[in-house]
Specification:
There is one protein chain. This protein has about 500 residues and is an alpha/beta fold. Helices cover about 45% and strands about 20% of the residues. It has a 9-stranded mixed β-sheet with strand order 5-4-1-6-7-8-11-10-9, with helices on both faces. Helix 14 links the parallel strand 15 and strand 16. The chain is globular, with a radius of gyration of 23 Å. The structure holds 6-O-phosphono-alpha-D-glucopyranose. The site of 6-O-phosphono-alpha-D-glucopyranose has 10 residues, from loops. One of its GO terms (biological process) is trehalose biosynthetic process.
């Protein structure tokens, strides 16, 4: 133990997220193949050199035997990861049920499908109990490895109950919680049976962070309206305890993308793609296959554009990269069939013997900002799009379509901009967030408007493209994921210092 040996050590940062940044595949009784994701959170935290980060989370596999749990724990330790083991029943109720069938759609204003509404109401309590149980399992693991002076950073809607569980173990633990999705208006949050318990638990944290000021404001309103607590410019106060609430917009490791473009393998990919789509403008969408991403609406807008602009039919192609996700949840299964049906219809309608207008490609992914929970048996081919191929795709794209219906902070738009230094393609964007200035902003629900924007983007003169790109590029390179993580953690440290100061006075 570094501390006991008296060596100067960095402050330990315990990052707790539902999913570890590693996916584990069992090779035999006692051996595991691990693949690490270098996107999103991982690259953010790699950039924060003053901390020694460890990860606590679910490895995405059910391991019920002792040998499996022991050997997986050992293999993960080499990657500085500590697993939380969840059995199948808990995964079903907590992850597929409460997290992805209740909280996720609610936080994105999607509501529940009408026919499921009553059934969900009935199964709500058991799913919420499983949610609390799962959060307690995460807390047990954190508590086992916690050392005085560690900072604990909890992530996302899966772990709203965690701050309270941790503080019950040790009220001196420094606990931060960050939400990667929108936090809805208090009027929406109000419709959740467990609305108060979740808010109270999150407020046990010392610092609560959101991607945008609006989400932070919604959270504070929910606490004032539902719990009757006081909202202050700093956060939420109740009986002398202040929980700081603030916005920390995430970014990407833009340098990683910019550097990759120089690599010979990326240049080779770029050359191949240019040859393959010579004479056609390339439009690109990259999304998890999720209801919030607005994929059917985007494709219908593209169909409308082709319908109204016959001269473009053989001059443009839409490459829609989709990463199936949460494939055990029925809404996601329905969405997948719906997208396949629409793509098939449009390709049948506008395709020729030699070319189709839409390439809808499913990938099992390790290289974007997330690892997905795709049940690969449901995928016809189990392949991932590697980082270099992705950078090349971004680089050859003329128009990127990022038209989520609602999103926490969409980083595909950032990745696209980082790879566009030479092409200066156009970004069509629905959720303005921080990239508003250089993008064409659209209402993703309005297919006519998106179709018109596609036409505008494809015909945009070079000087306007250049100007818009510069605005986006400046933002992407100056708001990085490393800066985001460093700011959050340093504010978390300061928050505690302030709290301790108050106690001393
Ligand atoms: C969103 C969530 C993440 C999640 C990711 C992939 O970005 O905010 O917490 O990890 O989706 O979803 P999955 O259910 O596969 O972990």
């Amino acid at each position: 133990n570094e501390r006991q040996e008296g060596r100067p050590s960095k402050q330990r940062l315990l990052v707790v997220a539902n999913r570890l940044p590693v996916s584990a595949v069992r090779r035999s009784v006692d051996s595991w193949q691990l693949e690490i994701s270098v996107g999103g959170l991982v690259s953010a935290l790699l950039g924060v050199k003053e901390f020694d980060a460890r990860w606590i989370g679910w490895a995405g596999v059910n391991v019920s035997d002792d040998i499996g749990q022991r050997t997986l724990t050992k293999s993960l330790a080499e990657k500085r990861c500590i697993p939380v083991f969840l059995d199948e029943e808990i995964v079903q109720q907590y992850y597929n049920g409460y997290c992805n069938n209740i909280l996720w759609p609610l936080f994105h204003y999607l509501g529940l499908p009408q026919e499921d509404r009553l059934a969900t109401t009935r199964s709500f309590q058991s799913q919420f109990d499983a949610y609390k149980k799962a959060n307690q399992l995460f807390a047990d693991v954190v508590n086992n490895i916690y050392q005085e002076g560690d900072v604990v950073w909890c992530h996302d809607y899966h772990l709203m109950f965690l701050p309270q569980c941790l503080k019950r173990y040790n009220s001196n633990m420094k606990v931060g919680w960050f939400l990667h999705t929108p936090f809805p208006s208090s009027e929406i949050h109000r419709t959740l049976p467990s609305r108060s318990e979740l808010l109270r638990s999150v407020l046990a944290a010392d610092l609560v962070g959101f991607h945008t000021y609006d989400y932070a404001r919604h959270f504070v309103s929910a606490c004032t309206r539902i719990l009757g607590f006081e909202g202050t410019p700093e956060g939420v106060e109740n009986q002398g305890k202040l929980t700081r609430v603030a916005a920390f917009p995430i970014g990407i490791d833009s340098e990683r993308f910019i550097r990759a473009l120089e690599l010979p393998q990326v240049q080779d990919h770029i050359k191949e793609l240019k040859e393959r789509f010579a004479g056609r403008k390339v439009m690109l969408g990259v999304d998890r296959l999720d209801m919030i991403k607005g994929i059917p609406q985007k494709i219908l807008a593209f169909e409308k554009f082709l319908e109204e602009n016959p001269n473009w039919r053989d001059k443009v192609v839409l490459l829609q990269i989709a990463v199936p996700t949460r494939t055990d949840v029925s809404e996601y299964q329905k969405l997948t069939s719906q997208v396949h049906e629409i793509v098939g219809r449009i390709n049948g309608r506008f395709g020729t013997l030699t070319a189709v207008p839409i390439h809808h490609l499913l990938y099992r992914d390790y290289e974007f900002g997330f690892i997905t929970s795709c049940n690969s048996e449901r995928l016809l081919n189990d392949r991932s799009l590697d980082f270099h191929a992705l950078c090349a795709l971004y680089a050859v794209t003329d128009v990127a379509l990022v038209t989520s219906l609602r999103d926490g902070m969409n980083l595909v738009s950032y990745e696209f901009v980082a790879c566009q230094a030479s092409k200066k393609g156009v970004l069509i964007l629905s959720a303005a967030q921080s990239l508003g200035a250089g993008a064409i902003l659209v209402n993703p629900w309005n297919i006519t408007e998106v179709a018109a924007s596609i036409g505008y983007a494809l015909n945009m003169p070079a000087d306007e493209r250049e100007k818009r790109h510069q605005l986006n590029f400046m933002h992407v390179t100056s708001h990085t994921s490393q800066e985001w993580a460093a700011t959050f953690v340093s504010e978390l440290n300061d928050t505690i210092v302030e709290a301790q100061l108050r106690t001393c006075q």
